[in-house]
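Need residues for this backbone.
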């Protein structure tokens, strides 16, 4: 049998949790013209929150879809061998047949990871890592000595942005995180120069004041994971020729409607400032940059440290997903597909 994680109902507002998902059993699939795979880990990511809305592309009463890593069980294509490890975007079904026509977007992880650390395939060597890599190296284009502010600094993407900016590019790095424990993690483990506790700021003005104390001459770059008052504070403190990379607005994902941010575009003209949104796929696919090789090297050298919050069993996805929005995680949220003991949704 194959086990699938099903989205029970779409959710337009509020925090998602275990009650919005269920497990179903299906007959074990047969190998077709491609490969038969087993998922080892699946990802819980903030962007999925918008996609489970009624106007999103995740449909109720169907398997969840997202970034996974796993191994090849059987194969009918010469490019893939039994035991090969891979990363891909697939339905959350633990054993499934993948047709040959869909293998173009598979990433080979064999030689980069083992089954023991295959969670890197959905973390540092997956979507979060490629988001951090592309946003920093290609969108922000840091120079040694510049100052960068990173929101969501204790999360999967933000932590890697800060570590690369500090340990690879030689920047002064300021993070933003919720609470003193997360701020301590950001500075002590990830090596950020400073971290401000946004929960101690009751308003945009408070956040601007806190940021200005840490960067009295302003910031050169801002990596946006949060939105809301973080974006407005960043624009207020952005120096001439400053750059903003926008990859997420988690502060809005659980609201019925997105909240517009204030931006005074006239201020950007003579200061030559730039705000750019982006997605990870050009770097994840290898179309741009040298993501997999660079990131694997930096992880191996200790310049990028791996931080994970792990949940056991595909049935625990609902709890893992909820943790993203309630501050219950540090680093990458990983769901190991197999669990030694079953737990209720």
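Answer:
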């Amino acid at each position: 049998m194959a086990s699938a994680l099903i989205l029970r109902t779409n959710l337009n507002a509020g925090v998602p949790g275990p009650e919005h998902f269920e497990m179903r059993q299906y007959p074990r699939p047969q190998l077709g013209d491609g490969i038969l795979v087993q998922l080892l880990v699946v990802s819980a990511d903030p962007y999925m929150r918008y996609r489970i809305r009624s106007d999103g592309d995740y449909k109720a009463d169907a398997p969840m879809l997202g970034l996974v890593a796993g191994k090849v069980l059987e194969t009918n294509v010469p490019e893939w061998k039994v035991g090969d490890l891979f990363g891909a975007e697939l339905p959350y079904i633990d054993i499934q047949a993948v047709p040959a026509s869909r293998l173009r977007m598979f990433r080979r992880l064999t030689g980069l990871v083992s089954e023991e650390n295959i969670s890197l395939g959905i973390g540092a060597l997956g979507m979060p890592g490629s988001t951090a890599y592309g946003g920093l190296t290609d969108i922000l284009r840091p120079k040694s000595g510049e100052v960068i502010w990173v929101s969501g600094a204790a999360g999967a993407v933000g932590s890697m942005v800060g570590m690369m900016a500090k340990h690879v590019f030689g920047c002064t790095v300021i993070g933003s995180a919720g609470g003193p424990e997360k701020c301590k993690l950001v500075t002590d483990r990830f090596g950020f120069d400073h971290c401000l506790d946004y929960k101690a700021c009751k308003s945009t003005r408070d956040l601007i004041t806190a940021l200005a104390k840490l960067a009295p001459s302003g910031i050169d770059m801002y990596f946006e994971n949060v939105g809301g008052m973080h974006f407005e504070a960043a624009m207020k403190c952005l120096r001439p020729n400053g750059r903003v990379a926008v990859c997420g607005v988690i502060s809005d994902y659980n609201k019925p409607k997105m909240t517009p941010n204030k931006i005074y575009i006239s201020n950007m003209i003579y200061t030559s400032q730039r705000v750019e949104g982006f997605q990870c796929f050009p770097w994840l696919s290898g179309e741009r940059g040298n993501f997999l090789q660079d990131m694997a090297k930096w992880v191996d050298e200790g310049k990028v440290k791996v931080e994970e919050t792990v949940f056991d069993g595909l049935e625990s996805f609902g709890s893992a997903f909820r943790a993203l929005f309630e501050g219950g995680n540090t680093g990458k949220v990983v769901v190991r597909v197999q669990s030694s003991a079953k737990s209720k949704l």
